[in-house]
Amino acid sequence: LISCEFLSESLKHSIRLEASSECRKGFEIRIGKQLDMAKPTDLKILTRGYGEKAEYFEDVELVKTVVKRFYSNYTDEDSEDVVSHFVKVAKLLEEFLLLAASEAALELEAFVSLADVTATISQGVLSCSDGIYRAIDVFLESHRYLTETEKMEACKVLDCKKLSGEGCEQAARNQRLPLRIVVQVLFASQLQIRDTVTKEIKGMEEKVVEEEEEEIGVLSDEDEMEKMSNKLLGLEIENHECVVHRWKKKKKKKKISLQQT
Predict the structure, then answer these.
(1) Which domain holds residue 107?
(2) Transmembrane stretches, by residue range (predicted)?
(3) Angle, CA 33 vertex, CA 29 and CA 35 arms, to 5°
(4) β-sheet bridge partners, residue 57
């Protein structure tokens, strides 16, 4: 199996040498088929420029292209096994977004475009948005000259409701984030606390109900045993009365017989 690093290098060379569109498409498809095995540095190869700009992030469109190639390999009828591949690619893009965010040369528009793709792919696949938050934090750190409006633009893909408890705690204290985002984080944190408390209360109520049902069950068994015991006692008394009655009747007959003689 040819590595994604080699395929990425080959695709960049084919573009630089102005190879045919079919040649470029072939490399894109091959990278897409094994994108879940790629590393963030493999994707960085696709974004870098040429010559003096060979080590800089110049264009993220090629990354978006190979991501589309990856998803075109799957259909709605595919088995649930493909979910693991989707998770790997979602994590790969989060790691790549974090790597790209540290580059001072990466423009805001390119970061937002890449972050939007990452958020879309992560939705429904990853349980939290902590990876995207970390990338945004790094981008704001490496681009301190951004205005408040530009910072809001960089943060627009962040789903505060999907931040973990730890993520909310960090974001709430993060002075690099716009104030509006911090407020959203605090609100999301309050909702998480409310949901947690609600679940705990519900769990305690269910436990109390179960204990009460068990106690009622024990009492029901005791009542049933008492009823059976009383019934047996009643039968014993009834039987005893029958025996006494027969004995008296027999004794009376014997007395009459003696009198006749």
Answers:
(1) 4-161
(2) none
(3) 105
(4) 48
Helix H, strand E, coil C: the string for the chain is CCCHHHHHHHHHHHHHCCCCHHHHHHHHHHHHHCHHHCCHHHHHHHHECCHHHCCCECCCHHHHHHHHHHHCCCCCCCCCCHHHHHHHHHHHHHHHHHHHHCCCCCCHHHHHHHHHHHHHHHCCCCCCCHHHHHHHHHHHHHCCCCCHHHHHHHHCCCCHHHCCHHHHHHHHCCCCCCHHHHHHHHHHHHHHHHHHHHHHHHHHHHHHHHHHHHHHHHHHHHHHHHHHHHHHHHHHHHHHHHHHHHHHHHHHHHHHHHHHC
User: Model's pTM, two decimal places?
Assistant: 0.72
For position 222, what pLDDT does the model report? 66
Q: What is the pLDDT of residue 258?
A: 61
* CA torsion, ordered 106, 112, 117, 123, to nearest 10 deg: 130
Question: Is 256 contained in some domain?
Answer: no
pLDDT value, residue 250: 66
CA neighbours closer than 13 Å in the CB half-sphere of residue 173: 5
Residue whose tokens read 């595919």: 78
Count of domains for the chain: 1
**Ordered mean pLDDT values, 10 residues apiece, the chain (261 residues):** 91 90 93 93 86 68 92 70 88 95 91 93 89 96 94 94 91 93 90 76 71 64 70 66 64 64 60
Query: Would 189 be classed as within a structural domain?
Result: no
Please name which of 31, 24, 114, 112 lies closest in space to residue 66, comparing C-alpha atoms.
Answer: 31
